[in-house]
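Exam prep: given the inputs below (a chain plus S-adenosylmethionine), describe the expected output before reading on.
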Amino acid sequence: MEKIPTPQKPKEDSSYAFFDKHAKKYVALQREFYSDAPDTGRIFFRESLLAGIEKKTIVDIGCGAGDDLIAYRELGAKNVIGVEPSLAMLKERKESLRENHPDIQLVVGEWERIPLADASVDAVTTRYSFHVLTDFKTAFKEVARVLKKDGLFLIATPHPLHDTKMAKTQNIQPGKKIKFPIFDGKLEIKNPPHTMEEYISEECLEYFIVEENLPYSMHEDKNETDPTGLLLRLRRK
Ligand SMILES: C[S@@+](CC[C@H](N)C(=O)[O-])C[C@H]1O[C@@H](n2cnc3c(N)ncnc32)[C@H](O)[C@@H]1O
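Solution:
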């Protein structure tokens, strides 16, 4: 496992300052709320990754507490790498990964600069870490750079319809962030709202084939009427 550098405070307006500040609380709540909950997004990711997994290098970007890294390792992936800019989030996982899964790599990095070689990865996954960006252009380019031909980019993200409704309810002006209460309102995150056109954008279609575009419910136990989540399976051309 990579050595994690000494923590430095991120800039207040960075996409990960919130997670850096609330790492301990976020990770504890994430485990409390989702460890046993049904999660269509995770099932979709794992089913998409399964064929030939023993030969695959899988990278989870914005891996946070890193629970998905362990799942990929247990499914038999050849190499598993977590990329995360928040040193505080990485620290939350560092010790337990070192003890139990010393072959899982953790790397400090961001969507805008993925610290991996060109065409070195079979699959990139992201669970609620892509929408933190205000602009996806550079990220699509970076993911396309590190993926091999036919590699997968799997995204679980808030559904644009849900973003639009929340922005309207909160009277959010273009360019501003919406408030997302999470874990039954125990934490509140602010994220930029996104449209479907931003996901299935020119940059996306330049590099990827859209194999799946599925609405789903982030909270399956709560009888949501509209889709709150979006699952995308993109294949590198
Ligand atoms: C909502 S959490 C999700 C964490 C984890 N994927 C999960 O499912 O629990 C968002 C994560 O994205 C990370 N993040 C924020 N800005 C990022 C960036 N520019 N590049 C990569 N990851 C980022 C945060 O630090 C945080 O760990």
